[in-house]
Design brief:
358 residues, 17% strand, globular
Length: 358
């Protein structure tokens, strides 16, 4: 079986690089429109097949629920009554030879515009001692000696999102993404972050009135099931405990971290459920506390109705817009460019791509 799969992949690659697949620009310009139309038509046909044939499967395997008028009215009262806080974060990075520079920001808000935010500047220079020799400086710049990574940056952002949210007074907390994202359960290697991250996630789960909506899911096959749902419908897919159990063998933890993660699975894994909801044109995966699953679904469906085309909670998008407005990546990049220029280092440190003529 493995051999067949290997051969099939080789044949597919060979097809992609076959000379008869490649065209000159004029030939491509004449055919791309029709090729694209045919390709999109096939995708639409597949989606329609899912829409018509999967419904019976969902009705058999899951309990399909629909948010009632009473549930939506309750949710609207919570939203307009400033009982719901949405939290989102953003970060901007600038890679340099001496390590990455990054600005991380988090914003939390409600519909009554009660805002809180926090911003931090992170640099590789912060985690290395002041080297006294050229050899030590060069050694610190080797990739394996770098401590500031994309994983760490995202973990800091997600951690502070949850920390800031817990300081809020609203009854409900709404997050953009999973309630316990991968970054907060990875340990982040040498940073020894597993225990503080899991401890904070436990506090979030203990809050109970929480919900996380996954805007960009890697589970395309699950999101595709949403084609068979009608607007205002939702269903419970599985327990979050299942995801944690699948993750543990692949985590490569040391014994202490493995025990800590096992304790987290046992005490808090069963508390969360993963569901799928649809408020408008598309469906999203969400995570919620088991005992408040239906309330959480009603809350995010009602908030998503404010923008039916995107069909995603507006309050989260509002929080995201605050981050984008206050902490635009382009502003941070220009700021670093300016500081580099002042010390005559811009042309050496700036990305080669940014210096290309277009």
């Amino acid at each position: 079986m493995a051999t067949d799969e290997h051969e099939r992949q080789e044949e597919t690659f060979a097809n992609f690089v076959s000379p008869d697949k490649w065209k000159d620009f004029e030939s491509h310009a004449k055919t791309i429109s029709q090729e694209l139309s045919n390709d999109i038509a096939l995708s639409a046909t597949q989606n329609e097949k899912i829409r018509t044939e999967v419904r019976k499967y969902l009705e058999k395997e899951y309990e399909i629920c629909k948010a009632s008028e009473n549930q939506l009215a309750w949710a609207e009262e919570k939203l307009y009554g400033s009982q719901v806080c949405a939290v989102d974060g953003t970060y901007s990075t600038y890679p340099m030879l001496s390590g990455i520079r990054c600005r991380i920001g988090v914003a939390a808000t409600s519909y009554r515009n009660k805002r809180t935010n926090g911003i931090v500047f992170v640099s590789e220079q912060h985690v290395h001692p002041s080297e006294s020799s050229v050899l030590e400086i060069l050694k610190s710049r080797k990739p394996e000696n770098r401590l500031i990574s994309g994983l760490l940056i995202r973990a800091i952002m997600f951690y502070m999102e949850r920390k800031i949210a817990l300081d809020r007074q609203e009854e409900w907390l709404m997050f953009n993404g999973p309630l316990v994202p991968f970054e907060l359960r990875s340990g982040i290697g040498r940073m020894r972050a597993l225990d503080p991250c899991l401890s904070l996630c436990e506090k979030i789960i203990d809050k109970k009135t929480i919900v996380g909506i996954v805007a960009k899911s890697t589970e395309d096959e699950i999101v595709s099931l949403g084609l068979a749902l009608e607007p205002l419908e939702y269903l419970k897919l599985r327990s979050f405990e299942d995801d944690l159990e699948d993750w543990l063998p692949r985590a490569h933890f040391n014994n202490a971290d493995k025990k800590r993660f096992r304790r987290f699975i046992n005490t808090h894994g069963p508390c969360l459920d993963i569901g799928l909801y649809k408020a408008g044109n598309r469906a999203y995966i969400f995570h919620a506390y088991r005992e408040h699953f239906h309330e959480a679904a009603a809350l995010i469906i009602r908030d998503s109705l404010f923008q039916p085309m995107r069909a995603y909670p507006l309050l989260i998008d509002y929080s995201d817009s605050l981050c984008t407005y206050l902490l635009a990546s382009s502003d941070f990049k220009r700021m670093v460019d300016f500081k580099l220029a002042k010390v005559d280092s811009l042309t050496f440190e700036q990305s080669e791509i940014d210096q290309r003529r277009r």
